[in-house]
Specification:
Elements (H helix, E strand, L loop, with lengths): L8 E6 L8 E7 L6 H9 L8 E6 L6 H8 L6 E6 L5 H11 L4 E6 L8 H12 L3 E8 L18 E6 H7 L8 E3 H7 L12 H7 L3 E13 L10 H19 L5 H22 L7 H11 L6 H12 L10
Parallel strand pairs: 2-3, 2-5, 3-4, 6-9
Antiparallel strand pairs: 1-4, 5-8, 6-8, 7-9
């Protein structure tokens, strides 16, 4: 048993120092007892790993989530279970897990993500072969019961692409944010997720890609999504809000170090995030400045207008049906 001096939550840790840890899995948990038996079955049976680490960060679940994790990892080494004393949000939770990771690689998952059994092995092999710091793939919504897909494998033959400029690839490509693999040193140096944004999906790839050497996209499903019951993806205001603020804060934080072309892309992304919200919520959206700027940014590379972005941020901050981080 390793004792950790961490404020704000308690922990249950089992560790082993027999060999170096090859990959650390970091899972955020909140009321997912329906999914966890299948998710953990797939996670704990990942193939080809020498000495994996498992970090679970519970955001004060009110169901049996923690008990299920404890029961299913009872005889597993390198397990850390963080039981927080207050609900703070996903980004804060995942950063607590990232800070404890010891593996060469970190692979993050939500507690309803099911990994094909050989997916982590394939991702690491490809990353080592091409010397890339980030790897991601595709996902599919299966509509099946969780346990029905807990023993699936991904195919051995699949296409992939390698891009040396990770940030440009994340900004220009269709980047899947689920089940990604990132080199630990890169992710920890990047500071993990932006805790000013509730959901981590947009901020983690942005912040990591700024420092990463190379990114690989695998044309294969590395995450299988089971039948969905209730999740944040159904709250479009939450998604629009978090996408906007991920780009907004990244622009503000790194405006003096990023090249002009990247700043223009980020500004266009923020305008697009804003337009998605406006289109769904204003009665005559196509007669707005929001639409004009969105179209203009698609045609011409625009210099970021931070006064304009601040006004958009005020509108998003006024939303009452959006969850916020609670540090």
């Amino acid at each position: 048993m390793v004792e950790l001096n961490l404020t704000g939550f308690s922990n249950n840790t089992k560790s082993s120092s027999d060999t170096d840890i090859d990959v650390s899995f970091v899972m955020t948990v909140y009321n997912k007892e329906f999914y966890l038996p299948a998710v953990l079955k797939a996670l704990l049976n990942q193939t080809g790993l020498k000495n994996p680490q498992y970090i679970f960060v519970d955001d004060l679940s009110r169901d049996r989530s923690v008990q299920i994790i404890e029961e299913m990892t009872k005889n597993v080494k390198n397990v850390i279970i963080l039981k927080k004393n207050k609900n703070e949000g996903i980004s804060i939770s995942i950063n607590k897990g990232i800070s404890l990771a010891q593996g060469k690689w970190i692979r993050m998952l939500d507690s309803d993500d099911i990994f094909p059994l050989n997916s982590t092995q394939k991702m690491i092999e490809l990353a080592d072969k091409l010397q890339a710091d980030m790897v991601y793939g595709t996902f599919t919504k299966t509509g099946k019961e969780p346990m029905d897909i807990a023993a699936e494998y991904m195919p051995n033959d699949f296409r992939y692409t390698f891009k040396p400029d990770a940030l440009k690839a994340v900004l220009n490509g269709h980047f899947t944010r689920m089940g990604q693999l990132i080199k630990r040193s890169v992710l920890q140096e990047a500071g993990g997720a932006d805790t000013r944004v509730f959901i981590q999906d947009e901020s983690i790839p942005l912040r990591a890609a700024r420092l990463a050497h190379g990114i690989i996209k695998m044309q294969a499903n590395v995450v299988l999504v089971p039948r969905e019951t209730n999740n944040l993806s159904k709250n479009t205001h939450q998604l629009d809000n978090d996408r906007f603020f991920a780009h907004y804060y990244f622009l503000k934080d790194y405006q003096n170090v990023l090249p002009r072309n990247i700043l223009a892309i980020l500004f266009s992304k923020a305008l697009s995030d804003n337009w998605k919200f406006v289109k769904k919520n204003l009665s005559h959206p196509y007669f707005t400045t929001d639409f004009y700027l969105y179209i203009l940014s698609k045609i011409f590379p625009l210099r970021p207008d931070f006064a304009l972005l601040d006004k958009m941020a005020e509108r998003f901050n006024s939303l009452t049906d959006v969850l916020r981080s609670k540090p």
